[in-house]
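Hey team,

Filing this mostly as a record. A colleague (T.K.) asked me to run one chain through the structure pipeline before their review meeting, and I want the input and output archived in the tracker in case anyone asks later how it was produced. No errors, nothing strange. Just documentation.

Input sequence:
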Amino acid sequence: MTTDSGPKRPSPARRRGDLSNSEAMLSMVRFLMTRPTCEQICQQLALTILSGHRPRKVLLCLFGVDGSLHVVGEFGLSGSEADALGPVSLWDAQPLADSVRTGEPVLVVDPIEAAEHYPQVAGESGAFRPLAVWPLSLPNQRVGAIQMVFDDEPDSAALHADMAGVSAVLALYLSLLTSIASFPDQAVTALRAVDAGGGFPTMELAALQSRPARKPGPSVLTDRQSGILTLMAKGLTNAQIAKRIGFSESTVRQETMVIYRFFGVGGRQEAVRQAGLRGLLPGTSP
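Output structure:
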């Protein structure tokens, strides 16, 4: 059932103190401690953590320095669907944009509602499937969003109970992943505190709030950064790239962080994908 004012909104978020009671959240915490890629996160959500809700497709998006949402991980999409993925502006008529802009989950379960509010997701020839979008955010920081597509309408209350905790720890993980060079140590420390029963890592959130704003990404890549990106696309490690171009591994690591900020992503797989979509790799065109 939807309201006349727009898409369905799940019930209000639970108190932060209740988040540690979420089995789904603890499963996500333990999985994130393995330092997965964004693609692996989507697969784990679909097949394990949220399997009871039977999501057919999962998209993970990050809010980039260009003010748009960029898909950095996906599960269940066909090749043509994956190839068609592109940046989403916060002002586009899409559930992803609405969720990140308002900071609230969006649930679209009615094809008439979808056609009215979100024509792009209404589906061709009436092939509509229910979807839900959960924002990933920290105090004073938009991180991204998770979009899930279902065969049947999910149980809103049950989905909210699972996603309240999952989205909180995933937002923290991705924020650290994309903005701190020492991410692995700080992120895993925070996640271990949750796993040990310490509740949601509010101290880490306070540190994130007091940290200076992340450096904006460059408007263009330098020749050296473009060369590193090309070698990344060929599967070379940082050590192999350093040996190939004659610079230290530390320099290569710093340059890869600049490349990530340029694309607004959190890892090399996502950076290479975005580079291919934008025609920035040899043999590709936008």
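Quick notes for T.K.: The first strand starts at residue 55 and ends at 63. The domain at 16-210 is CATH 3.30.450.40 (Beta-Lactamase).
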